[in-house]
Recover the amino acids of this structure.
């Protein structure tokens, strides 16, 4: 039941901040909710025959901007309430995440609590969760902050061939502090280190809504229709807020138990703050997925995409991060190209090995507006024994601003971890994570390492009705 560590903390605009733990009761391993990614949608299909495909069609959208990963409901029918308590200690080499400012190492503690409510009835799966807590910095009390993340998920089977899925997420999370050069706008850290510097507290807030309809048209043909809305706000240093609306629809054909093909059209509208121009993205993709064996799946997708970004009149009086000082405009631009990706995955019980690559269109994580993002990711996990699990994850991403490829940034992280189940209800997790951001105009490279020890106790499930 542990909340997955958020390796995306090493991505720009996502200073180390835990995001909502998966809404999961009793089963499986959670998949992290990652950075908004436009069309990794085809990578999750695993051909398993028409009958199984009826229950999994459209799941390739999960974990992308189109749909957050859905979580399993309690295996038992009725209503279940599940609380948990988490205590975590961290050592961070860059507490401030200050862009071009001083690095400040130190420790902080995290106390978290979580409540889950799950309801399962024939045709209906409902999950509601709330996670909240606080960070305490013993030496720098100005950095103390609260965290909260609430989620709602409903899966409703309308008929034997049609299913509706709705999700909602609201989160308000800390983003550390950054150097503030304008007198009177920031605060001096308690402890007086570094001398004479003032800082702004940063926070990250998001509201996310998704809706998806999947249906079986015939024995081997399926469809999916969906829409999503995301509203992301950064408070603190000059980071770019974003609102996004997506719609998509696709048809899938399952020629055999081991393979399937799909065609999906998607349209995306993004609106940015600080004077950055809005953008519209239209994409048409074909996909193919093949199960080479019961444990190995290969997925491919690709197709043409058209991006129309309006001109930007930037409010750069406060030195917008990622844009050269004094630059005030970006021209209107229409850019066409090929987007796509590939993934190979092997799963044997609780052991997983996955390698994937994507070239996508997405938002610039608070530093830039619309970017073309190339990402490579490796994920490895292995159960050494009934009590011990090992994991290793890493990502490298390159981001270029649409219409002006000279502006962009690169970032990567690597994270090994160990998890030990002390009892059926208590687990201990040790992580060591390192990441770096480079290439932002006028900003020194940002690097940090975080070592974390975490204890989580999950209380026994409490049935509260039928």
């Amino acid at each position: 039941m542990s909340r997955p560590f958020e390796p995306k903390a090493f991505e720009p605009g996502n200073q180390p901040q835990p995001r909502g733990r998966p809404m999961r009761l009793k089963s499986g391993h959670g998949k992290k909710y990652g950075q908004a990614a436009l069309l990794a949608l085809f990578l999750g299909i695993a051909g398993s025959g028409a009958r199984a495909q009826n229950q999994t069609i459209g799941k390739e959208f999960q974990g992308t901007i189109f749909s957050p990963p859905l979580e399993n409901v309690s295996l038992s029918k009725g209503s279940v309430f599940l609380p948990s308590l988490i205590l975590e200690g961290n050592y961070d080499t860059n507490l401030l995440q200050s862009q071009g400012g001083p690095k400040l190492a130190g420790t902080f503690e995290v106390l978290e609590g979580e409540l889950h409510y799950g309801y399962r009835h024939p045709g209906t799966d409902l999950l509601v969760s709330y996670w909240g807590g606080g960070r305490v910095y013993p030496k720098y009390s100005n950095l103390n902050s609260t965290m909260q993340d609430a989620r709602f998920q409903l899966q409703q089977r309308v008929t034997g061939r049609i299913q509706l899925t709705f999700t909602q997420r609201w989160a308000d999370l800390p983003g550390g502090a950054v150097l503030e050069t304008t007198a009177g706008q920031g605060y001096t850290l308690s402890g007086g280190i570094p001398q004479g510097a003032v800082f702004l507290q940063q926070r990250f807030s998001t509201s996310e809504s998704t809706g998806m309809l999947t249906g079986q048209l015939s024995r081997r043909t399926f469809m999916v229709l969906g829409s999503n809305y995301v509203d992301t706000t950064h408070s603190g240093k000059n980071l770019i807020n974003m609102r996004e609306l997506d719609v998509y629809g696709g048809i899938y054909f399952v020629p055999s138990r081991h393979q399937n093909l799909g065609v999906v059209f998607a349209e995306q509208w993004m609106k940015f703050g600080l004077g950055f121009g809005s953008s519209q993205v239209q994409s048409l993709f074909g996909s193919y997925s093949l199960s080479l064996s019961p444990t190995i799946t290969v997925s491919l997708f690709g197709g043409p995409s058209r991006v129309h970004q309006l001109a930007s009149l930037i409010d750069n009086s406060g030195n917008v991060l990622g844009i050269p000082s004094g630059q005030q405009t970006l021209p209107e631009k229409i850019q066409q190209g090929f987007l796509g990706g590939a993934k190979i995955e092997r799963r044997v019980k609780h052991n997983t090995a996955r390698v994937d690559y994507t070239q996508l269109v997405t938002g610039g994580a608070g530093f830039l507006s619309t970017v073309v993002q190339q990402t490579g990711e490796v994920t490895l996990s292995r159960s050494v024994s009934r009590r011990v699990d090992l994991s290793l994850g890493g990502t490298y991403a390159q981001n270029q601003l649409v219409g002006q490829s000279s502006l962009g940034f690169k970032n990567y992280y690597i994270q090994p971890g160990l998890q030990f189940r002390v009892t059926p209800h208590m687990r201990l997790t040790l992580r060591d994570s390192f990441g770096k951001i480079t290439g932002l105009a006028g900003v020194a490279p940002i690097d940090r390492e975080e070592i974390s020890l975490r204890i989580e106790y999950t209380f026994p499930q409490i049935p509260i009705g039928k």
